[in-house]
Amino acid sequence: MSSKHIVIIPGDGIGTEITAEALRVSQAAAEKCRVAFTYENKQAGGAAIDACGVPLPEDTIEACRQADGVLLGAVGGPKWDQVAPELRAEKAILGLRKSLGLYANLRPVKVFSALAGQSPLKPEIVKTVDILIVRELNGGIYYGTRREAAVVNGIEQACDNEMYSRPEIERIVRLACQAAAGRKGRVVSVDKANVLATSRLWRKVANEVAADFSQVEISHMYVDNCAMQLVLNPGSFDVIVTGNLFGDILSDEAAVLSGSIGLLPSASLGDGTGLYEPIHGSAPDIAGKGLANPLGTILSAAMMFRYSLGSNQVADMIEDAVEQVLADGYRTADIYQPGFTRVTTEEMGQQVIARLK
Ligand code: NAD
Ligand code: IPM
Ligand code: MN
Predict the structure, then answer these.
(1) Which three-class secondary structure state does DSSP give residue 49?
(2) Do 1-107+264-357 and 119-258 share a fold?
């Protein structure tokens, strides 16, 4: 296989620590499987604002376009919260997703058996959880017209607009149905069709698309009910498909099922290079202290090998090692409980590498 090339964007906060471990694990696993890849680091987010005044430099976008895959840590933090809205660190992620045409964000939520007792929910509620959240990533209120706060007729007001078009809904629901066909065949489409026009279009189009998949059963749920069902009966879900904002919120909620947001990976797929990142943010509260859980980023790297670098073998090897490291009792601070072995971010990376086989 020809050598693949990846771009690594550490970003801000814990981004540097977690991507360093994901890179080390990736290199060790690839070497074991005799898979070659090269990498380069690029800047985005607050780090790029500090270095060159913009959150997403042109050369970062270009390098990502040329690469086979992009691994990103996280961006943002209090240091850059006061900059102009168009220069916010988070704009880097939104810009990358748009520039690369990444409309589908896959966020798998599973519970490692070693961590079934870790969730604040009862083990019998979480132990059967295996959910794939398919979040629309290139549209909705994230990319609608926006009017920053201004005083109109003496009253300060701001505005964000939500728009979804038929093609945008069709492609994401189709992808969710395809994914479900290879799983348990159940799609729950989540919307707010009792209030929002975009949701009513979403529901209609979702039904039409799902009709093409005889092996897939689609049902609909309002987002407020879904938020409740995710903690009440999470084992009932297979694939959830939803819009940009609802998907963002529901996936952080679903992370609680697994035991920590630090465990959840994601893949953003679409027209261009795939982007892989943990679902969490830059966690400024724990940055630089060796407290961050790198497993979500390591599992994102595994997804990158599977979906963008053409190596299921490396992906499986990394995922098996993560499962084993947890079974062997290693825990970063976020999932630590007495009786287990507490490790730093870096030690967790080393323990994963020790279990690659
Ligand atoms: P966050 O996800 O960074 O942190 C929420 C909580 O989870 C914090 O208590 C944090 O310590 C903890 N946490 C997150 N990742 C962890 C890990 N790997 N290991 C252990 N604990 C972890 O969310 P936030 O505090 O709302 O946001 C912080 C910054 O990150 C903001 O600037 C936000 O805009 C940005 N953000 C970026 C991304 C991204 O780059 N994809 C995603 C979400 C938030
Ligand atoms: C995520 C983050 C981003 C989002 C922010 C940082 C723009 O919360 O990746 O989940 O809302 O999509
Ligand atoms: Mn989020």
Answers:
(1) helix
(2) yes
